[in-house]
Each structure stands twice: as C-alpha cells, then as structure tokens.
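TICKET #2291
ISSUE: user wants both folds in one file
ATTACHMENT 1:
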Amino acid sequence: FWTLLKTGVDAIGELPPGRWEWPAGIDPEQTHRGSGRCGFLDAGDRFDAPFFRISPAEAEAMDPQQRLLLELSWETLESAGYAPARLANTPTGVFVGASGSDYSRLWDQAGLPIDAPCGTGASMAVLANRISYFFDFHGPSLLIDTACSSSLVAVHQAIEALRAGQAAQALVGGIHLMCHPANAIAYYKSGMLAQDGRCKAFDARADGYGRGEGAGMLLLKPLPAAQADGDPIHAVLRGSACNHGGQAGGLTVPNPRQQSALLRTAWRDAGIAAETLGYIE
C-alpha cells in the first residue's frame, strides 16, 4: 500500500478473468459501466497448505481470507523479529476486522458438496481463531464486523485488551476479498458505486465510492514491553475510542456531530491537545 502511494500506481482495474461475471441484465443500458471496476488483489487463490499443516481438501474449503490472514500473520511476526514458536503458549491475542465472506456463496453456486471442512471454512469467527490455533496463542481471539470500520475497531479492541492485561501482545488486522457479485449488485442498485471505480464520496465530484480488496496486519505491544524487548517500533498508538452515530440521515449516513465527539474522546484518551495535531484523516 505504501509503495502504491509513493509511486502513484493506479490499482483500479477490471474484473480478473475467472473471478466472477458482472450480470448482463443488471445494467442493460450500460449507463453505469464502471460498476465492475475495483481494486483487485492478484493470486488471491494461491496458498501453501502443507506449510500451515492443512490438507488439500481442507484448504480448498477454506475462505481465501483465512488463507491470506495465515500468511500475513507469519510475515508480521517475521517482520517484528519473532520466531513464531517463541510466542506459542503465550497470552497473544488475535483481533481481525472483516465484513462478510463471499466464498460460501461461490461454493454453493458451483454446486460443490458440503463436506466437514466447509463448516470451519466458511466461519467468520475462524478468520481469527485459525491463527490462534495454528500458532498456539492463548489470548483473546476475536472477529470484529462493524462494516467499513471493522479493522479500526479491531485495533481499538486490541488496545483495550493490552491495557487490561488480557494479552501480552496482539496480532491485529483487517481483510476484504470479493469472490461473488451479490454485494456489488446490491451496492450498485443502491446507487453507491462510482462509475470509474474510484472513491469520490463527500467530494465535489461525488458519484459514489470504489470497492477494493486488501489485507494488513500489525503486532501490537505495550510500549515499555516493546522497548525492553528491543522490538522494532514503527509507531505509537497513544489512544483510541469507539462509538456509534445513532440516528442520522439514513442507516449508512455518517453523523458529523457524533464523529466529532468520537475524535474528542480519542484525543482525551491519548492525552493529546487538538491544536498539536498535524494531520487528520
């Protein structure tokens, strides 16, 4: 993601061959041609199952989001300088933000038989639990689904668990893969999708937002512990907050008043004066 930002690469493209087809009957007048343009990951179906001690049959039934998160968790621990076995049997938490799984829809549509691995393969909870199982982590293991804010709420929950002593460190991240057109159709019919696949919500040129795939993961620890252990520290999260906007202009419409209140709560939690901030997203 950082490389894309630095180099100005346009990651929006057409549906990859073999992913799924945009149904022709949805837009017969072709007035919304950009509906199938999104930010897609390459090779999302590839997975080294034997490395993670998973049989080919079980790997095939697994939501690709589970596969990618396993790979990311290993890479995150490597980046942090930890041999995964070193954290086995420790109170390490796993907090994953995700919103929906298209893979089970795809499985049903293909008419494939429902076997034993399909149960855990389609479970959203297993996005986090499989990581804890593989690495033998004993801290909280949670899937957080709050739609667009899922990964940020996962970070908030991980911080709270670290502060409460429920975990010594925590893997926290988010993921989104698009394997089936159902949600795209629903968002298109709701008028949410930009024609060119690029987010312009709340902009003067606003005509909707663009969908994309991606995943990211961090290893969080209390700062004194990270310093004592000589860990590479990329950033310090000084505070967080979480709320709901309540009633607004619609179920999916932000509530500016409550978003402002949320910022003030986060700043108080972090002990930061608003006038000292240099950037707000």
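ATTACHMENT 2:
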Amino acid sequence: MKIHYNPKLKKLARNLRNNSTLSEVLLWQSLKKKQVLGYQFSRQRPIGDYIVDFYCSKLMLVIEIDGSSHEDKYEYDVSRQKYLERLGLSVIRFDDKDIKNQLHNVLSGIENWILENTK
C-alpha cells in the first residue's frame, strides 16, 4: 500500500533528520540498516500532513518518541494517531527517557511487537 504525503513536508522532514534529538539518534542507531529482525525503517517520514519519527512500510508500523515536544499536545497526538490508524498503520510510542535509559527494553518491545504481529 502506497502512503501519500504532503510534499511541502519534505524540507521540514530533512531538517528534522539533520537536527535529531538524542533519543532519536540513539534509537536510529539501532533501527537503521535492517538491524531489528531484518526490517527496514526510515526516520522523520512524512505521512499525510504529519511527520512520524520512524516508519517501516513492510510492517505498516510507526514508532513515535514522546519527549518534551509532546508536552501539552495530548489532543493533537490522539488526533494524529487516529489519522494514522485510519490509514491502516499501527503506532507504538516510547518515552524519551526510556530510550535514553533503557534502550535494550525499548528494542525488545519493538521486536516483541513485530513477532506478535507478523505471524
């Protein structure tokens, strides 16, 4: 399934990739180059009118990091997630602090999600 996006977001997505947070960099180091069960992820990927932190098209999986940029944006995040789910995407979220302090557990959570959803 091809996911469409707003082409106006390409430049912003590139800027976000070039100015990643520490937790994004840490998680990306473990997701890139098919390191998680052989699945290819992209980062700062435009989908519709949104940019998601990480995306795997084969799994139709979005991974979001909730850090300080998500504070006071609960309703926005809920609306955004509902939109992504209407497209048939699954969304899993991790706290910024968990990535910084418990990366192994985060990666285990991603691997468990993949194993449970690809049977």
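RESOLUTION: both attachments delivered.
EXTRA DETAIL ON ATTACHMENT 2: Helices lie at 10-18, 22-31, 74-86, 96-101, 103-117.
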